[in-house]
């Protein structure tokens, strides 16, 4: 809860730091704000306090995910120090918007009332609509913003409708009251409640870009400035998945039979669509968008096997995914800056131009592909083991086959890195940029070797 | 002795290679590390035999066990028996030879040697793992270097081959992963510990579903028919050391997995599916042999003959007698050494003549006597001449197979035996055309014979081949307790 306050204040501070002539000030304020927010957040560990008439419940689940989001954003903001792509909006405003969005994310992982869920989603999304369009003179960026906004508003309507239907049946917005109501219904929940639940699935499915609600993702990811895309594919995804998981873990555990078949199909569809489509992309940014869809699909498996996949496996997966994605995007930004292209071909000859970057790229993509010794491997292993335990063998088989498809497109980038390129000018890297890459790459391997560090948390 | 050293040395060497300043340092670090590994493996062999001679009869020796991830009971659990030791020895020989054969790699030397060491790390780790998770972990670690070695340093249609190889092998390991999960959850003890798992009885229904997954999954690595198609493409595109590692080590990961994981943990299903395994293996043996006859490229010849030879491994496993399993392991070692040497020689020839086409080669014996003598020897070994390892291994497989009295097994054995004739045809034709006859190209006259590193590599591998060929008993003694265990397990659950 204190983290939410700190983030809001830091957002304002970042906004006003834009008046200063010192351009670095906004970055410093933001980094400080995030560090403080993270610390304050961690201090709440094991307290489990309810705020505002039980609108927000800051349990360890909320604290863990808030911490992940704050740290991920810290890494992304740090990338700004050396960020070269032209973002026409001043830095200070970007940071302020990111902070507000993150505040929405924090609400999403700590809500205990469906109204807070809705508010969180809106607070998370509205700054993103602006950020997506922040390259004002670029057609694709404008397209991204308007597409994201229209479809996002549409999804919000679904979400709201679902909430209202559930309220109509249970006379409560509170997730624990709803759960209690469902329990009393003895496995015979009213049809309206189930309908409301499916609307929620649709609305949240949009936010985490689950197929068939994923059509906005590639265009928005590609059109937005890369730094915003990084934020969307890590922090926003973490918030969305955590909110989704919280909903099912707290509100609907008693009627698993109603939603497990649907989510299973969603999961299978999402990972297959994501992976198969990613194979045909030539733009790495777009490919990462589809890979993000695919990872959302794997994560949905955790929902299906909620009985044997504890929150820790979702947490670990999201951390592994965030770390490798930030790493991959950090490299992509450098490539974009030096070659002006975000195509796979832009990676050609990278091993000559900078062996360091080549190595980092390899680690990032190997982790995304889920190959040991990286975190991506263990994340999948742990998640899939839960799915098998819960008896979802066929879903696991689909998932492992999908992982094989994924290897094809991730490895394509790695091959490009080590193949002959036309350009051989060495790449200059900023210190902070380099530090972010090293931190994420080291984390990707260290977490893979010592997964218990994270998994024992929740 | 501390078994973890087998992983630590390649790891340290790989890191040292990354930090080293120039190509010369890289090569020497890798060479010394692989020499040390060979020394260590030989020491391991003697220590193991010493322990056994002292009457230590526990199934696995030199065990080490640390908890890795407690919630799932994952352990870093390593240990060796005779079968693992023979595979470790094979790896050590091939790695040393592979490092020597790569002495002239100019392109990105550092990365090349780093990947070679990483691959060897994966293989050593795989062979000493007694925990299914650790085993899978190392199996996957060994795949990426293969992909990159072919994709970056390969020749011809290298990207296609690299992708095909990576996708098929990853597909195989996906099946293995599912199988491992099934064993973990359905064995009833929630453990990845192979020794413990081998002592519980997994329900026959579970075995029937998941044995094929595990066997085919590992089988892809060892070119089980019809999943052998990555072999010719992969080998022909790979750089010399890549082919050597691929055929010498990587394909053996599969065979070892089929034996140690699939057959050992699910013996009833192995018995159940044995006819299918035997049919697939016989097809691979015969099809591989006939396909080889049609090849014109030396690398393709050896690649297809590898499919054929690896069929003997699967045949030996499928026959499920003590002798045949012994033979399968011996065939793995023998084929590993032999095929690595074969690829090394092909590499030597190709580096000089810039062609691998048999018809463009000729009369090389006069120009490079050392290279061609090795080619002759390895060819003779491949067609199973007594005195070399190939004969011993294939003979053992056949003898083991013949012990199964039923008609079906006899027919399969005879069919497999027939392939030897075909092998003789293609080997003699290829080797004869390359080494003897008139010199087909004037340029060949200026070529030089093998350099010191190539000679050393060839001698290292030849030593292994001859050691098995002349004195096979040390190897079969090493392997037989492990094989006996598997057979006893089968005999314990199935009555003829």
List the helices and strands and how they pair.
The complex is a heterodimer of chains A (458) and B (496).
Chain A: H1 2-16, H2 24-43, E1 49-51, E2 56-58, H3 60-80, H4 91-110, H5 114-132, H6 139-170, H7 175-184, H8 191-207, H9 216-223, H10 226-250, H11 256-279, H12 284-304, H13 311-339, H14 350-353, H15 355-369, H16 375-389, H17 393-418, H18 431-449, H19 452-455
Antiparallel strand pairs in A: 1-2
Helix pairs in contact in A: 1-2, 1-4, 2-3, 3-4, 3-10, 3-13, 4-5, 4-10, 5-6, 5-10, 6-8, 6-9, 8-10, 9-10, 9-12, 10-12, 10-13, 11-12, 11-17, 12-13, 12-16, 12-17, 13-15, 13-16, 13-18, 15-17, 15-18, 16-17, 16-18
Chain B: H1 5-19, H2 23-53, E1 61-69, E2 74-80, H3 82-101, H4 109-128, H5 132-141, H6 143-153, H7 158-186, H8 194-197, H9 204-221, H10 230-237, H11 240-265, H12 267-293, H13 298-319, H14 322-353, H15 364-367, H16 369-382, H17 389-402, H18 407-435, H19 452-470, H20 473-493
Antiparallel strand pairs in B: 1-2
Key traits:
heterodimer, A: mainly alpha, two-stranded antiparallel sheet, 19 helices, 2 strands, globular, B: mainly alpha, two-stranded antiparallel ribbon, 20 helices
Order of helices and strands of chain A: HHEEHHHHHHHHHHHHHHHHH
Task: Give the strand tally of chain A.
Answer: 2
Terminal-residue CA separation of chain B: 41 Å
What's the count of strands of chain B? 2
Description:
The complex is a heterodimer of chains A (458) and B (496). Chain A is built from 19 helices and 2 strands. Chain A has a two-stranded antiparallel ribbon. Chain A has helices at 2-16, 24-43, 60-80, 91-110, 114-132, 139-170, 175-184, 191-207, 216-223, 226-250, 256-279, 284-304, 311-339, 350-353, 355-369, 375-389, 393-418, 431-449, 452-455, and strands at 49-51, 56-58. In chain A, a hairpin with a 4-residue loop joins strand 1 (49-51) and strand 2. With 458 residues, chain A is mainly α. Chain A has 2 domains: 1-251, no CATH class; 258-458, no CATH class. The longest helix of chain A has 32 residues, at 139-170. Chain A is 75% helix and 1% strand. With 496 residues, chain B is mainly alpha-helical. Helix content of chain B is 75%, strand content 3%. Chain B is built from 20 helices and 2 strands. Chain B has helices spanning 5-19, 23-53, 82-101, 109-128, 132-141, 143-153, 158-186, 194-197, 204-221, 230-237, 240-265, 267-293, 298-319, 322-353, 364-367, 369-382, 389-402, 407-435, 452-470, 473-493; strands at residues 61-69, 74-80. Chain B has a two-stranded antiparallel sheet with strand order 1-2. In chain B, strand 1 (61-69) and strand 2 form a beta hairpin. The longest helix of chain B has 32 residues, at 322-353. Classes of the chains: A mainly alpha (458), B mainly alpha (496). The interface between A and B is medium-sized, with 32 and 33 residues.
């Amino acid at each position: 809860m204190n983290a939410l306050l700190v983030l809001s204040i830091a957002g304002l501070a970042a906004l006003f730091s834009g008046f200063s002539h010192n351009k670095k000030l906004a970055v410093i304020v933001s980094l400080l704000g995030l560090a403080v927010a993270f610390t304050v957040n961690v201090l709440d560990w094991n307290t489990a306090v309810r705020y505002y008439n039980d609108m927000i419940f800051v349990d360890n689940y909320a604290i863990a995910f808030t911490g992940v989001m704050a740290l991920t954003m810290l890494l992304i903001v740090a990338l700004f120090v050396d960020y070269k792509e032209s973002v026409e909006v001043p830095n200070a405003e970007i940071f302020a918007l990111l902070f507000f969005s993150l505040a929405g994310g924090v609400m999403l992982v700590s809500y205990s009332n469906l109204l807070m869920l809705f508010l969180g989603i809106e607070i998370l999304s509205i700054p993103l609509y602006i950020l997506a369009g922040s390259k004002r003179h670029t057609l694709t960026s404008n397209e991204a913003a308007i597409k994201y906004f229209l479809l996002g508003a549409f999804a919000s309507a679904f979400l709201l409708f679902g909430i209202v239907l559930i309220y109509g049946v249970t006379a409560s917005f509170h997730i624990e009251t709803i759960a209690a109501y469902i329990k009393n219904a003895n496995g015979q929940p009213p049809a309206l409640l189930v309908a409301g639940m499916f609307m929620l699935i649709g609305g949240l499915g949009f936010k985490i870009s689950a197929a068939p609600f994923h059509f906005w993702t590639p265009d928005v990811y590609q059109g937005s400035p890369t730094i915003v895309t990084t934020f969307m594919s890590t922090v926003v995804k973490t918030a969305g998945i955590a909110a989704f998981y919280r909903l099912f873990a707290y509100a609907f555990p008693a009627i698993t039979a109603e939603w497990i078949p649907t989510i299973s199909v969603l999961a299978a569809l999402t990972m297959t669509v994501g992976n198969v489509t990613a194979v045909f992309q030539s733009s790495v940014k777009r490919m990462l968008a589809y890979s993000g869809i695919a990872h959302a699909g794997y994560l949905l498996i955790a929902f299906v096997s909620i009985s044997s996949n504890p929150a820790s496996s979702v947490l670990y997966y999201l951390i592994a995914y965030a770390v490798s994605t930030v790493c991959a995007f950090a490299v992509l930004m450098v490539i974009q800056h030096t070659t002006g292209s975000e195509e796979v071909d832009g990676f050609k000859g990278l091993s000559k131009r900078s062996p360091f970057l080549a190595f980092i790229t390899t680690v990032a993509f190997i982790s995304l592909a889920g190959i040991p010794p990286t975190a991506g491997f263990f994340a999948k292993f742990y998640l899939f083991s839960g799915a098998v335990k819960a008896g979802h063998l066929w879903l696991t088989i689909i998932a492992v086959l999908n992982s094989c498809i994924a290897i094809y497109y991730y490895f394509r980038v790695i091959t490009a890195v080590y193949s002959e390129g036309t350009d051989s000018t060495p790449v200059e890297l900023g210190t902070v940029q380099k530090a972010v890459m090293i931190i994420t790459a080291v984390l990707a391997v260290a977490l893979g070797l010592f997964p218990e560090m994270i998994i024992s948390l929740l | 002795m501390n078994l973890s050293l087998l992983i630590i040395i390649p790891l340290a060497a790989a890191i040292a290679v990354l930090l080293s300043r120039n190509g010369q340092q890289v090569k020497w670090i890798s060479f010394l590390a692989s020499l040390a590994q060979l020394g260590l493996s030989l020491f391991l062999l003697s220590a193991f035999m010493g322990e056994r001679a002292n009457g230590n009869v526990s199934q696995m020796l030199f065990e080490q066990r640390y908890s890795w991830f407690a919630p799932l009971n994952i352990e870093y659990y390593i240990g060796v028996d005779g079968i693992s030791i023979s595979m470790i020895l094979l790896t050590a020989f091939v790695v040393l030879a592979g490092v020597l054969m790569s002495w002239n790699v100019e392109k990105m030397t550092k990365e090349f040697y780093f990947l070679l060491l990483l691959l060897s790390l994966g293989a050593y780790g795989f062979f000493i793992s007694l925990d299914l998770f650790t085993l899978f972990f190392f199996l996957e670690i060994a795949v990426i270097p293969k992909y990159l070695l072919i994709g970056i340093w390969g020749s011809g249609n290298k990207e296609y081959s690299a992708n095909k190889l990576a996708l098929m092998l990853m597909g195989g390991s996906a099946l293995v992963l599912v199988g491992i999960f099934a064993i973990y959850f359905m064995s009833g003890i929630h453990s990845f510990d192979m020794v413990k798992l081998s002592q519980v009885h997994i329900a026959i229904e579970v075995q029937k579903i998941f044995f094929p997954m595990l066997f085919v999954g590992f089988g892809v690595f060892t070119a089980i028919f019809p999943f052998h198609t990555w072999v010719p493409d992969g080998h022909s595109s790979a750089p010399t050391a890549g082919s050597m590692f691929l055929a010498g080590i990587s394909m053996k990961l599969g065979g070892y997995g089929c034996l140690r994981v699939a057959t050992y943990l699910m013996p009833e299903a192995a018995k159940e599916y044995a006819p299918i395994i035997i049919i697939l293996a016989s097809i691979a043996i015969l099809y591989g042999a006939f396909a080889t006859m049609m090849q014109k490229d030396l690398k393709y010849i050896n690649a297809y003959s590898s499919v054929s030879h690896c069929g003997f491994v699967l045949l030996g496993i499928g026959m499920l007698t003590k002798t045949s399993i012994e033979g399968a392991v011996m065939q793995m070692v023998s084929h590993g050494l032999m095929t690595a040497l074969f690829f090394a020689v092909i590499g030597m020839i190709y580096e000089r003549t810039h062609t691998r086409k048999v018809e463009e080669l000729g009369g090389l014996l006069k120009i490079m006597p050392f290279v061609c003598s090795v080619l002759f020897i390895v060819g003779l070994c491949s067609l199973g001449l007594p005195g070399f390892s190939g004969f011993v291994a294939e003979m053992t497989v056949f003898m083991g197979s013949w012990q199964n009295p039923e008609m079906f097994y006899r027919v399969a054995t005879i069919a497999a035996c027939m392939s030897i004739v075909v092998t003789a045809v293609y080997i003699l034709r290829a080797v004869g055309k390359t080494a003897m006859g008139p010199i087909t190209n004037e340029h060949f006259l200026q070529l030089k014979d093998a350099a010191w590193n190539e000679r050393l590599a060839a001698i290292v591998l030849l030593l292994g081949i001859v050691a098995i060929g002349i004195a096979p008993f040390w190897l079969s003694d090493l392997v037989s307790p492990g094989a006996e265990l598997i057979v006893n397990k089968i005999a314990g659950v199935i009555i003829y």
